[in-house]
Amino acid sequence: MPFTVTDVPHLPDGFTSTFTSRTVQVRDLTLHAVVGGDGPPLLLLPGWPQFWYCWRLAMPDLAEHFTVIAADVRGVGASDKPATGYDPLTLADDMAALMTGLGHDRFAIAGFDLGMVVGYALAAGHRDRVTHLAVAEAILPGVSDFPPPMTDPARGDLMWHFAFNRLPADVNERMVAGREEIYFGHQFASKAATPDAIPPHAVDVYVDALRDPAALHASFEFYRADQGLARVREAGPLTIPVLTLGGELSGGTFVETVMRLVATDVTGLVIPGAGHFLPEEAPAAAVKALLEFLV
Question: Alpha-carbon torsion 34, 259, 274, 160, what sign?
């Protein structure tokens, strides 16, 4: 199975002594997570275009306080990659079933980028199961204001991939296939605080994962799918504690503004000097914020 805990390079020292790969059968697909540590369960959800590996630098410190479950949603990493099922509500149901399969009834969530969208859908759709929600660096489709296609250059450079990723498969998938390092390499170089903030060896891991045609298809299906968040929002705002994190050089206070539209108990924090990829650009600051919020 590629991209499990024993298949990826440059893990922190002692990582595989603490963490192991686990799989759970959920309906007709197999979901993968890297699990380790001791304490209350904490579900970590990855950002696009990444998988569990994006949390690797934060996981050892978090495992001193929590049973850490760094999950691969369907379509990424070592989880199955079906052709369909990439809307947030289905992804949230997958993660709820994964946590049940791992023996966790109630748990906290930390979700970054795509993981923020899935985390909100999970907390809103399974309100009896989620105790705390920490989210970072994303919009909520149908809730957040979305900039027009022709916007100022800085915002356009940050957001243009939303429109591209929603194009039909015979356009964007054909354009990117065989050139994954160009398209996805640009995402990491342009959205981090500096072009080399995500080291080349990590970018190579993500790009290699996306060379699988099923993974490439899934990476765009996250954007093409019907988002459906209005259905869980109808139940009212979240009342659990919510922490929002933004990079000073990326989302800033935007995530806090968005989550105050859907939750009543929100604490916001901006991480200085960081760009979009908070778990890798600022793992120590992210861990500190999570521990202060959760412990």
Answer: positive
